[in-house]
């Protein structure tokens, strides 16, 4: 089968499309013939040598795919060859075929074509699992950083569907307008004093939850922006890995800081997350409460261009590669 490999750690130029052996589905696994694969920030980190796959997983890049069931491993029930599906992976998505535990596979949302569906699972699973981890409740206030990325665009709509007051950050007037169109109540330019903007918007209270993709750079201002009993969950490290945490500020608010990685969760946890996405998120998409983020699509032969698009800083929504 054709698959994308990395010849070494580095820039997009290290990505190469070549022939590799087709995987065989093991017990409890499905083999998926891939229609399309989502491209994520984690993929860029892996290409650069900073985010290796968990032990025992494919060293090919790619954390989410859509396609059709091509073969069933032993003990798999509820699926048949030819069924349309989407899957959450720990690796292996940039390939014509991928083998994955059946619990990490589900049907695509009703009415959504497979190419569009390829860019949904990773963002949905990331947002839902992390908001569950910090006990996000209907009607709370939330600050979502990076409101026009794939995760941000989904998170704004998901939080609004659950009655939240949504604040978000973005880097241009055009992107701020897009955030408001998606349902954000307040959109703040991160080039300005967004901490003051959060305080003004919440009348000094701060927000209950922060979904952060920046890491170290935003650690101190995020803590300042939390309400009493607020919860900060770090899901990305675009702003660095090491920051200084003022424990006295955290203590004074009885606040919580946590960080999670979806990729390294055990298979049983991933299966539970996929099931939760199917039951909670898919109906919101089918009803129109959540719309699919804008996608920039590339054929797999242009995988380098796809990585350049996502890594360039101006991308809006999701990047998807098609087979």
From TrEMBL:
<dbReference type="InterPro" id="IPR013149">
    <property type="entry name" value="ADH-like_C"/>
</dbReference>
<dbReference type="InterPro" id="IPR014189">
    <property type="entry name" value="Quinone_OxRdtase_PIG3"/>
</dbReference>
<dbReference type="Pfam" id="PF00107">
    <property type="entry name" value="ADH_zinc_N"/>
</dbReference>
<keyword id="KW-0521">NADP</keyword>
<dbReference type="InterPro" id="IPR036291">
    <property type="entry name" value="NAD(P)-bd_dom_sf"/>
</dbReference>
<keyword id="KW-0560">Oxidoreductase</keyword>
<dbReference type="Pfam" id="PF08240">
    <property type="entry name" value="ADH_N"/>
</dbReference>
<protein>
    <submittedName>
        <fullName>NAD(P)H-quinone oxidoreductase</fullName>
    </submittedName>
</protein>
<dbReference type="InterPro" id="IPR020843">
    <property type="entry name" value="ER"/>
</dbReference>
<dbReference type="GO" id="GO:0016651">
    <property type="term" value="F:oxidoreductase activity, acting on NAD(P)H"/>
</dbReference>
<dbReference type="InterPro" id="IPR013154">
    <property type="entry name" value="ADH-like_N"/>
</dbReference>
<dbReference type="GO" id="GO:0070402">
    <property type="term" value="F:NADPH binding"/>
</dbReference>
<dbReference type="InterPro" id="IPR011032">
    <property type="entry name" value="GroES-like_sf"/>
</dbReference>
<feature type="domain" description="Enoyl reductase (ER)">
    <location>
        <begin position="10"/>
        <end position="321"/>
    </location>
</feature>
